[in-house]
Write a structure and sequence with these properties.
24 helices; 37% helix; binds 2-(butylsulfanyl)adenosine; alpha+beta
Length: 678
């Protein structure tokens, strides 16, 4: 392993021994949290190794001196995955899994039971590792599946990942190993205990923490976390013939010193596979890592090749998602929150409970009607449900509290004291607009959010201080903030202030759709903003469009058109837009998109009922991006109705009119078919 043969044998021996010792202490310190020597002793050992390697030309990419890079990188380098990193189709019920098996059998013309490799679906971050001649050359994030980020410097800090593969059968090869980087439950708990003590804060959940750690520019930050990795597949292969099954691939990965998940099983047919899923769900609390389901893959690689893939996912695998987790929690109080547009929403403050991978201490109650339906009072115990990234939900009252306090809508806005007014059947509103500090804060927060102007480092606490001190009265004021001014605020050093000013500056170059979304026009979210930008190409024609012209945009109906007009007819809003442009906010003008060339151009589609795997907005955005018009009601001009669960009158009407109806599974397939064609 130590390459320079001219180096004295005693030196080579010392280098080998130092490497072994350092590897051992690294493991004790980072992964096991049980250091056996002091930091100073460790640093001295590492310094000695660095010195010997440099003096005798013994540097090697598998040396622990390569594990932690000394200097932070200036930015990430984009890498392209030669073989795209796909995602997985999902099954939410046993029936959906059986349908998957039937589809596979039909497509591959199979008879008899199919052999599946069933694995836990680890809730972490997918990464790709490239080994050349057995030596780790590159680690990358999945990114959008085609382009990821080079995170080699951070990957090297993970002790589960060998810098050099064991054995010698990989000589002369290039291999891409794929898998999931994650934080174990125990490691996460230890990390949080330390963070609570030293920094007075905790991390929300292991997955987000792992995702943040893997994207650090300074690998010393990554090295502080006990990240682990389970490898599950080989992507790119050059110079090696792979065995015939996934199970044998796992054996190969193990032999090379990579870590694989021992909780995998070989199952025959849907019956055994589903039994595996049920057992895994029972075993979930005992596993030392978070999972959100199982991944079920065809074991024979030849059969995988035969089945191929769609644009997004392989046809030979499916993710079986666990049902949403439910726990009971006590409602300590019900508060009223003021939204960006003044809507007053009741929020339950809960005795914190860990459910669905996060600690939940607040849950929205939507409106007073919902509270009435639940029969909820402060002091009650409730059932909280949360799955994946879904917002926690209160499902029902589990037990009435001993001391119950009924919930009533206040008469004055809790943030500014203005009278609260009724708006429609169930909504209540504070109409004070940007005079109300809560609405001002939220509008700044919305403006800076990732899907809008994407200003990194402008957190809620700082926004609160900026707005409450009067430094930011409206979003255009953000562009006037100086480093010195920002550095006056709590927890803002010169460095973070300078970073924030740079991020604000960077946000000036944006796109029309982001800008429109950032303005916070009622009912204009990301999908509508995109449709408006696509349709008008620039702001000027949009400002001139009357309600009728606005309704020509696929995503815009009467109500949205009215909100858009009301927004731009208000001189204060026009002044704000002008101030933002004067401050330097700009976007490259685009050609209005030629809708007719898209695969669903000319088709009018209506979505109704509840979709389980995507939100209605996501479904709408997908359809719009394929050129369809998404309408709100069924008529003779409707081409197709997407009907989720509990679809009502629209479904009946579509049936009467003989319109094509797609259930959720058929809709997913319909989207895939069209995406392949694009
Ligand atoms: S196989 C073609 N196996 O789930 C996709 N994925 O939506 C191959 N994941 O991005 C993925 N555990 O991050 C596979 N045992 C496992 C997994 C797993 C977690 C993640 C992975 C992927 C996502 C798929």
């Amino acid at each position: 392993m130590t390459t320079n043969d001219n180096a004295p044998a005693s030196i080579r021996q010392e280098v080998e021994s130092l490497r072994k010792q350092i590897d051992h202490h690294n493991l004790q310190y980072h992964a096991l949290d049980r250091p056996e020597i002091t930091d100073a002793e460790f640093d001295a050992m590492l310094a000695r190794l660095e010195q010997l390697e440099a003096r005798y030309g013994l540097q090697s990419p598998d040396s622990p001196t390569w594990r932690v890079g000394a200097e932070p990188l200036p930015g990430f380098v984009e890498v392209r995955h030669e073989i795209p990193m796909l995602s997985l189709e999902k099954a939410f019920s046993e029936e959906e899994f059986q349908q998957f098996e039937a589809r596979v059998a039909k497509r591959a013309e199979l008879e008899g039971e199919i052999e599946f490799c069933c694995e836990p679906k680890v809730d972490g971050v997918a990464v790709s590792l490239i080994y050349q001649d057995g030596v780790l050359k590159r680690g990358a994030t999945r990114g959008d599946g085609v382009n990821g980020e080079d995170i080699t410097h951070n990957i090297r800090t993970i002790h589960d990942i060998p810098l050099r593969l064991h054995g010698s059968d990989h000589a002369g090869t290039v291999l891409e190993i794929r898998g999931e980087v994650f934080l174990g439950k125990e490691g996460f708990a230890a990390l949080n205990a330390r963070a609570r003590e030293e920094e007075g804060r905790t991390y929300i959940n292991p997955r987000n923490t792992a995702a943040g750690a893997i994207r650090q520019l300074d690998s010393r930050n990554t090295a502080k976390l006990p990240l682990r990795m389970y490898c599950y597949s080989i992507g790119l292969v050059n110079g090696l013939t792979l065995p015939g099954t996934l199970f044998e691939i796992f054996a190969l990965l193990d032999k090379w010193g990579l870590h694989t998940n021992i909780d995998r099983r070989l199952c025959h047919g849907a019956g055994e596979s589903l039994e595996y899923c049920r057992r895994l769900l029972q075993k979930r609390p005992q596993l030392d890592y978070e999972i959100d389901g199982a991944v079920i893959k065809i074991n024979q690689l030849e059969l995988q090749r035969k089945l191929g893939q769609t644009a997004r996912s392989p046809r030979w695998a499916i993710a079986w998602k666990f049902p949403a987790e439910e726990k009971s929690a006590k409602v300590l109080a019900v508060d009223f929150q003021v939204g960006r547009t003044g809507t007053i929403t009741p929020v339950a403050r809960l005795d914190p409970v860990f459910v669905g991978g996060v600690t939940v201490s607040n849950a929205t109650l939507h409106n007073m009607d919902e509270i009435g339906k639940l029969g909820l009072c402060a002091g009650d115990s409730v059932i909280v449900r949360r799955a994946g990234d879904v917002i926690p939900q209160i499902v029902q009252v589990a037990a009435a509290g001993k001391e119950r306090k009924s919930v009533t809508m206040p008469t004055e806005c809790p943030a500014c004291g203005s009278p609260i007014e009724r708006d429609g059947d169930v909504q209540f509103r504070c109409n004070a607009g940007l005079v109300c500090p809560a609405q001002r804060r939220q509008s700044v927060s919305h403006f800076a959010s990732r899907s809008a102007m994407d200003i990194e480092g402008l957190g809620e606490r700082l926004i609160e201080q900026l707005v409450d001190s009067g430094a930011v009265r409206n979003v255009a004021d953000l562009y006037r903030l100086s480093v010195d001014k920002l550095a006056e605020f709590e927890r803002m050093g010169q460095k973070s202030a300078a970073n924030l000013v740079a991020a604000i500056e960077k946000s000036k170059r944006t796109s029309l759709n982001r800008f429109l979304a950032a303005l916070g026009i009622r009912e204009v979210g990301g999908a509508t903003a995109m449709a408006l930008a696509d349709h008008f190409g620039d702001l000027a024609p949009l400002l001139e469009a009357d309600a009728e012209a606005l309704q020509q945009v696929p995503d815009v109906g009467e109500v949205v058109a009215r909100h858009i007009r009301e927004f731009f007819d208000n001189p204060e809003n026009l002044a704000l837009v002008a101030a933002l442009r004067e401050a330097g906010v700009y976007w490259p003008a685009a050609q209005p998109r030629a809708q007719d060339s898209l695969p669903l151009a000319g088709q009018t589609i209506v979505i109704t009922g509840t979709l389980g795997r995507m939100t209605r907005n996501d479904a709408k955005a997908k359809l719009l991006s394929l050129g369809a018009k998404v309408a709100g009601s069924v008529s003779a001009r409707t081409d197709c109705l997407v009907a989720g669960e509990k679809a009502g009158s629209k479904l009946t009407k579509a049936e009467e009119l003989g319109i094509r109806i797609l259930n959720e599974q058929e809709f997913a397939e319909f989207l895939l078919e069209h995406e392949i064609e694009t």
